[in-house]
Structures are given as C-alpha cells and as structure tokens.
Amino acid sequence: MNQLKPWRSVARTHAGKVRTRNEDAFLDCPQLGLWVVADGMGGHQCGDIASQLIVTHLADLPQAGSFDERMIAMRQCLHWLNRRMSQELTINPEHKDKIMGSTVVALLIEGKRGACVWAGDSRCYLLRDHHLHQLTRDHSLFEQLINEQKMSPEKARLQPNSQSLTRAIGASDQLQLEIVELEVQPDDVFLLCSDGFYEGLNNEVLLRTLGLESMHTLFTDVLGGTARDNLTAIVISQ
Questions:
Q1: Which residue in 85, 83, 110, 114 sits closest to 179, CA to CA?
Q2: What pLDDT, in 10s, does the model give residues 128-138?
Q3: Of 111, 141, 94, 126, which Cα lies nearest the Cα of 193?
Q4: Domain count of the fold of the chain
Q5: What is the pLDDT of residues 193-233, one digit of tens each?
Q6: CATH of the domain at 25
Q7: Sheet strands (E) in 77-227
Q8: CB-count exposure of residue 8 (10 Å: 0-12, 13-18, 19+)
C-alpha cells in the first residue's frame, strides 16, 4: 500500500509590472497541511488588509482535532471574517475605495483526505497522472454568463463588468463558500494561485512544467507578459 510522504511546498508573490502595491497574501504551512492564497479586491484601499486578515486568522486556527473539525473551524473563521469585513469595517457605498474584501482559496490535507475551500476567482489546480484538473470554478460574472446564460466565452467576455466577482470575503452579508473534497494520491501536485498568476499562463505550460522546482520558471513566464495584476502561487507536492 502506498504511504503518503510529508508534504513540501514553495510559495511566491509579486506585485506585477503595473501596480505599486501587492494586495495578495498567502499562507504556506506544510507542517499543518494548510495552504491559502487570498487576493485583496483590486483597486480598494483596504484590499491588502483584507487578504492579510484572512491568512493571519486561518494560520491561528487550532491544529488539534479531526479533519472534519478543522474544516468546520475553517468555514466558521471565514464566515466570521466576512461579517467583520462586510458589516464592521465597510464604509458606506459613497466611499467605495474603503471597501474591504478578498478572494480566498484554501487547501487542507490530512492523511489521504484533502479539501479545497474557496470564494472568488483564485484557483486550485491538481496535477494527477499527467492530467491537469481545475478543482475550483471561478465565482465571477463571466463564469455565470457561460454556465447560466449559456453564452460562449467570446460573447461573455464582451459583456459589461464580465470580470466582476460574484462571491468574495466581505462582498456581502451572506457568504457562500464552495468546497471540494478528494482522496489524495501519492504523486499529486497542487497549485493554489491568484488570477494575476494563472491569467499569464495556459494549461499546457502548467501541465508540462508544474512542480516544486518550477516556480521560478513560471513566474518568469508570467512576468514576461503584461503582468498587470499582483501574482501569487503555491506549489504543493511530496
């Protein structure tokens, strides 16, 4: 029977080539089996605070307990942060530059159990048996137009505000998290990343190069393009 070895990971973030401030944040804790990427809502003055709040509070969660108990604690933490950002720290609509909000994608692994939790358009990919799987689906108007209105990607991209998020921490009073659970395999490779990272790459590049040693190459590829947004990535493997 295959035994799972300890998980290893490498993480990196960069402001990109246009923005002066990096509103992304990440948590890289292989010893806890926990990894997180948060992307502060672009253009808002508090985006960097929101993303840092998420990774800080998730890092402080109790390590003891079962996998299910840790998942419950993670969800409760994110719901609490959503209430705090949307009700306590958000200024009225006339001051939209003060809105606090962030996407989040978190991966928890314990033994052979794994779960991905997210809200927004930061992603989790899984490379398994030479196939690349996108475990998350973007919570954006673009995806909604394709899935619900049956628009083609080309037509959906032309719609006003098509890149707007439909879910994020702090975006509304009621937070809807999405969760995917899976059985982890010994040779699995995971990638958590913000949209600024994956928009600068294509799946063929990820399929061909994704691994613990590929981070420098992948960032070089993204930064060789326009890199208009902050970019963050964590690669997780054994």
A1: 114
A2: 999 999 999 99
A3: 126
A4: 1
A5: 999 999 999 999 999 999 999 999 999 999 999 999 999 99
A6: 3.60.40.10
A7: 102-110, 113-119, 123-128, 131-134, 178-183, 189-193
A8: exposed
Contacts of 32 (CB under 8 A, 6+ apart): 63
CB atoms within 10 A of CB 132: 17
Q: What is the pLDDT of residue 147?
A: 73
Has residue 3 been placed in a domain? no
How confident is the model over 15-54, as pLDDT tens digits?
999 998 999 999 999 999 999 999 998 555 688 999 999 9
Contact 233, 12 (CB under 8 A): yes
Q: Which residues pair with 25 in a beta bridge?
A: 38
> Considering the domain boundaries, does residue 120 fall inside one?
yes
